[in-house]
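Lab notebook page, bench 4
Experiment: in silico fold of construct C2
Operator: M.H.
Input chain length: 95 residues
Purpose: comparison with the prior construct
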Amino acid sequence: MVDAFRDLLPAEILGRPKRGFLLPIAPWMASTLGRDVAGRLHEPPAALQPLFDRNAVADVWDAFRASGRHRLRPWSLYALFTWWSSVEAEMGARG
């Protein structure tokens, strides 16, 4: 990608090392997205329910809400449950 934009970017940008970035997960979950996260974590997809202790999953969300820490735990579960729901919907659409 750097080669594609070489003529548009300043040399100090082109020469600097790669660096990571953090997604603003905690602010996202503290906003209106938090309602969706809470809903998914308190009601996992039916096919995944036998694999997860519902109380433990709910505790992950409650612990995040109480402290704002460990944001990746509820986010990872939310991503998994959302992905699985999309897979189920796609499979259902195919009949």
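Observations: The mean pLDDT is 90. The chain has six helices and no strands.
Next step: discuss at group meeting.
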